[in-house]
Amino acid sequence: MLTLVIFLPLAVALALPGVPRRAVPWTWLGVSVVELALVAAMWAAHGTGGGTSFETDARWIPSVRAGYHVGVDGLSLPLLALTAVLFATCAVYSLRNTHRVRAFAMLFLFLETVCLGLFAALDLLLFFVFFDLSIVGMYFVILLWGHEDRARSALKFFLYTFLGSLVLLLGFIGLYLGADPHTFDMVELTRTPPFAGSPGLAGLTLLAVGAGLAIKTPVVPFHTWLPPAHTDAPAAGSAVLAGVMLKMGTYGLVRIAMPLLPDAWRRYALVMLVVGLVSVLYGAFVALAQDNVKRLVAYTSVNHMGYIVLALGAAGYAAGDTDARRLAVTGAVTQMVSHGLVTGALFLLCGVLHDRAGSYDIGRFGGVARRAPVFAGLVAVAAFASLGLPGLSGFIAEFQIFAGTIGTGTAATAVTGALAVAGILVTAALFLRVLHLVVLGQPGELTPRVTDVRRPELAALVPLLALSLLIGVAPRVLLDTIEPLSAAVVALVGR
Amino acid sequence: MNENPADLAPELCVLIAAVLGLVNGLFLPRTRQWRVAVICAAGLVAGLAVAGVAATRPDLMAFDAFEIDPVTHVTRIVVFGSTLLVVILAAGQVRDHPRESEHYTLILLSALGTVALGATSDLLVLVAAYLLASIPAYALAGFGKDAPGTEAALKYYLMGALLGVVMLGGVTLLFGVGRGTAYPMLREGFADASPAVVAVGVVALLAGPLFKAGAVPGHFWVPDVTEGAPPAVAAFVTTVPKIGAFAALYRFGAETSPGGWAVLVAVIAAVTMTLGNLAAFGQDNVRRLLAYSTVSQAGYLLVPVAMAGRTDLAEPAVLYYLAAYAVTNVGAFAVVLAAGRDDLAGYTGLLRRSPLLGLSLVVCLLGLVGTPPTAVFVGKVLMFGAALDGGHAWLAVVAAVNTVASVFYYLRWIIPLFGRRTGRPAPRPARGASTVAVVAAVLSVLLGVGSGIALTAS
């Protein structure tokens, strides 16, 4: 079942050259909806219990003990669902696309397989295969459908994240060699963590794995590939890149770095806290200074991903209160989902703006609310969700992160947590600035070109924001799914 | 002593095909010389089949100098397989050429020398195999009798002769130290010999195989021959002799384990991959680009060679990477042959003109980068693993940085494929070469996905 879910988009992508051109967008949409239904069915079958469901473990490269091992649990299910939702949204959003439609659909279906596979992988080598392919896929999305300086941005994206992936690979090989017997299987590695008794090597391996994932996340100072990649990518590409692919980094931290290297994680938890805090503050302040609305959203991603790293760092303080650490991990996973939905929506809204006016420059818009009331309303909701207004998903996630981080009770977590709250303030300021300059105020020079959202765009945006609202109002199902997992992760880090 | 010629059956198949081809070529009219290609291909297929059967039997030693073990099995299969692809490529190029049959025969003889190079565990046989692998290749490089070809052949020959003599000097020295030329004897001899003499001997000996492998400092011929020789020959000399050279290097390192081997080869590896990559950056001629790419690939291949005897991952890494590299490299050259263009600009819009061919090139180039799930990716994972496990983490880091750098020039070739062609339409891609390109691309993906099966079998 899980294998079918992962590879169905790829199979359809391979069959797509045989589909008549007119039917291509609808085929793409159909598959995405089927995927969404299948993931929802898996979630229903898994319920809110602990443990792994839909596990498949086939031999792949037995001589190095790497297998095709996939399964879903409380960590992967929310992210699989997020992936399915965002890709379906992109399919809807791109219904009116006319530029190389077939290749675009094929590439996105390929990327969907890659993202789903990554979040389901329980084998380091398999994880890496999907991790690397996501870079190749996104490179072509930016190169072929981007705008402005796309070749340069795409190349920077490829080289930077590819370097990260190779560092990650070295870390994985370190884990493989550190385990006894050598294996790439995450479940076995979790059972008996590698490098028992050699903390120096464990620290080095954590450095490699951590750096590789940090580039993907991205955290300061490894974030410089992100703004150009986002600015020049097409709207749907940005939505997937920010909504799904950035999560690969933090997902890897929770799935691989924390359970497999618990000693090292505890020892270097302070580094994670500080890196998270710096990302939160730096991302927020730099976003405040942006005049390009897409760059602005890109920097808020750095800020939001910083909260996740902060919370995961706090979870490494074994001396702290266990319940608070669980809360921090739950908050971190919730933030991954929330950020995916909200940032996806924000990037699609940027895409609408660019589609109409051909510019992202905040200063050239103004008073859009009068020309495009629905668009303005959607921007307002997305902005409030992103800055963490109660009643929307961002609040649930960030509240748990702060409560958990500060509640851990050690001096370091309390101080960094308290400082990070300032990030929320800056984010609020910058989104209010955007609303003030773009949506309200005097009409700008490009405002007359902005027409209201069209039906496919509306159909793509409303579900994302509705889900954010749903999580904000009734988070129980999501949190109940995550909680057994966060308890398990905290226990694993604590041993 | 085992002197059963049947143990060399795969080599004999190819030798018989080469001789039959030559004799037939003498009597066939010029327009029917294509039959020689069929004979040669049949010999290679038979050799492949017999080698496959032989791979299931236990290891043994033939004629006291020819080891039949997993290294030899893989060398045979990869050499014969890639030679078969090259013969198909060449058949399209030299059709009705006055010396058509000689072309195939020379290719087969050089391939035979390559197999012997990889299989022998005796220095004297190593020298003989080196000559057998090299001399036909010199002739092939100048086959076109044009100015670039002549220059290429001369350069190739002078480099080969010079480094061959240095190698002979090394062999003499090692013979003096080890009181024998067989590897087991040398191993004992090295133990109580002066380390300095052994070091000088080993360095001199390395000259020959490094020349065949196209690694620093024996790499000067690679770009000129790749650009000047006929393209099918370029595909051959940058792929096939390397296989035997790396097998020979690995075998020598693992079986005699001279002191300082790991450090010496590791440094050569680091220099080779870095130099190859840096030189490839500015190339606008795709054949020169591929030539420098093969130099950098030689650097990666030397990593597990350096780790010979230090980790269990070294042997699978060398063998798997060789197979992966051979398939992918032949694929890339096949696209060059099919497209018939040497400049990067000539590839603009290829993906639109012939999607299959363009896609094969994308797969092969991304494969050379080491993108999963192609075969080179698995080879690279094993290579990194061997370096880390062998205690040379710095080498793994150098290789990783080089891999990232290499993305840049492979992408320089990939980006134009998606462009829109302006101006006059290009000629249609050659049918045979296109097929080889597609087959190689598919093989490289299959070998990557099915790496479990391939690794267990070796």
TrEMBL record, chain A:
Record's bilayer topology term: Multi-pass membrane protein
The enzyme's E.C. designation: 1.6.5.-
Protein's UniProt keywords contain Transmembrane helix: yes
UniProt record, GO biological process: ATP synthesis coupled electron transport; electron transport coupled proton transport
Every NADH:quinone oxidoreductase/Mrp antiporter transmembrane domain range: 121-418
Transmembrane segments: 75-94, 101-119, 125-145, 157-177, 197-215, 235-256, 268-289, 296-320, 332-353, 374-397, 417-438, 458-478
Domain of life: Bacteria
Recorded GO CC terms: endomembrane system; membrane
Uppermost EC category: oxidoreductase
InterPro entries: NADH_Q_OxRdtase_chainM/4, NADH_UbQ_OxRdtase, ND/Mrp_TM
Keywords attached to this entry: Membrane, Oxidoreductase, Transmembrane, Transmembrane helix
GO MF, one annotated term: ubiquinone binding
One Pfam family matching this protein: Proton_antipo_M
Localization annotation: Endomembrane system; Membrane
Homology family: Belongs to the complex I subunit 4 family.
Protein name: NADH-quinone oxidoreductase subunit M
Organism field: Actinomadura spongiicola
Automatic annotation (TrEMBL), chain B:
GO MF, one example: NADH dehydrogenase (quinone) (non-electrogenic) activity
Domain NADH:quinone oxidoreductase/Mrp antiporter transmembrane intervals: 122-404
UniProt GO cellular component terms: endomembrane system; plasma membrane
Record-level GO BP terms: ATP synthesis coupled electron transport
EC number: 7.1.1.-
Enzyme class at the top of the EC tree: translocase
Transmembrane regions: 12-29, 36-54, 74-94, 106-133, 153-177, 189-211, 261-282, 289-307, 319-338, 350-371, 391-411, 432-455
Keywords: Cell membrane, Membrane, NAD, Quinone, Translocase, Transmembrane, Transmembrane helix, Transport
Compartments in which it is found: Cell membrane; Endomembrane system; Membrane
Catalyzed reactions: a quinone + NADH + 5 H(+)(in) = a quinol + NAD(+) + 4 H(+)(out)
Subunit structure: NDH-1 is composed of 14 different subunits. Subunits NuoA, H, J, K, L, M, N constitute the membrane sector of the complex.
Family as reported in the entry's similarity comment: Belongs to the complex I subunit 2 family.
Protein name: NADH-quinone oxidoreductase subunit N
Originating organism: Actinomadura spongiicola
Organism ancestry: Bacteria, Bacillati, Actinomycetota, Actinomycetes, Streptosporangiales
